[in-house]
Structure formats: C-alpha cells, structure tokens
Specification:
Elements lengths: L5 H9 L3 H23 L2 H18 L9 H20 L9 H8 L7 H16 L3 H12 L4 H8 L3 H22 L2
Helix pairs in contact: 1-2, 2-3, 2-4, 3-4, 4-8, 6-9, 7-9, 8-9
C-alpha cells in the first residue's frame, strides 16, 4: 500500500476522513512537541501547546492553499502557539545552546568542571530569554530546527533578509550578554 502524501491526506481530511488527520498528527506530533518545548522549556506546557497546535491545524486546514509545504504551515502554527503561551506567562523561555556557546567562550575547549558548564548554561539561558520574541523564534528555527532562511521566511511571513538580520542580531546579543556576564 502506497503511503499518502501530505496533500493527499489534507484532501482526505477535507472530505471528512478523520483517520487522515490522525495520520498527519502521527507524522508531525513529535517534531511539533520538540519545537514548542524548545521555546517553552516545560514538558507539561509543551504537551498542552502541541495539542492546541493540532486543534488549530484541524480548524484551519480548509484555508491551507498549499503555497508552502504542510510542515512549514504546521511550524508557523506551532511557533505562534508557543509565543502565545510565552505571553500568557509573561516570561521568556530558556533555550540551551550548549556546544555552540561553549565553543564561543572557550575557544573550543569544554569547561573544566561540570559546575562551570552548568553556570555557562544558565548564562546562555538568560541571554536567550532576554531576546525579543521574533529573534528567539528565528534563532530556534534556524539553529535547532535547521530550517533554511527561506523556510523561516515562509513560516514567519517575512522576507528572507529580515530573517537573516534577526538571526544575526540574536547571535550578537547573546554574545554581548555573555561577554558582559563573564567580566
């Protein structure tokens, strides 16, 4: 039996086939959870947000025109839901950068002690938490989800140049924050 494409599944959902929607959820639930978790840094809240993403997806599939692929469309919903959760709790999430920031600060050497590494993680989390929501969103999509700038631009309905600028500014702000904190 041939595996249906995302577009075929969407057509089946539009025709009332709820099993097709279950297949969409099965395909993307894990990925959505991890995207949301990177922004919210809380398992329970991320589970709730993931459910909300798929409720919103189900309600909006009739509007899906196929201009972007389904994965990009779901990502846009997921990041918007996560930002909504962040606004509700009025606290920015923590994103761990681990290796990249460790390499930035130590010139490629791991911190000598575990406590040094934990202190660095806290500083990085604070730096990322201080980013404006859009820069954080671009950073998560680019760094962790490894989306291209073009895909990020589609997700966020912005120009590719704006997404590159947001990522650049996010990295610059994280670096400045860490330099100041390490003094």
């Amino acid at each position: 039996m041939e595996i249906p494409s995302d577009l075929e599944l969407i057509e089946q959902v539009s025709a009332g086939n709820q099993k097709a929607f279950s297949e969409i959820v099965r395909r993307y639930e894990r990925r959505v959870f991890f995207v949301v978790k990177k922004m919210l840094n809380d398992d329970d809240e991320s589970s709730d947000a993931t459910q909300e993403v798929f409720i919103k997806l189900h309600d909006s599939l009739k509007k899906f025109r196929g201009d972007a692929n389904l994965y990009t469309y779901i990502y846009r919903i997921a990041t918007n839901v996560a930002i909504s959760y962040l606004r509700k709790r009025k606290v920015r999430s923590v994103v761990r950068l681990d290796e990249v920031v460790t390499n930035m600060l130590s010139g490629g050497n791991e911190p000598q002690r575990e406590s040094d590494q934990e202190e660095l993680r806290k500083l990085v989390a604070d730096a990322v938490a201080a980013l404006p929501a859009q820069q954080k969103q671009v950073f998560v999509l680019r760094f962790y989800e490894e989306l291209s700038y073009e895909e990020i631009a589609q997700v966020m309905h912005r120009s590719m140049g704006a997404m590159k600028a947001n990522y650049f500014h996010a990295m610059k702000k994280i670096g400045e924050y860490l330099k100041n904190a390490m003094r």
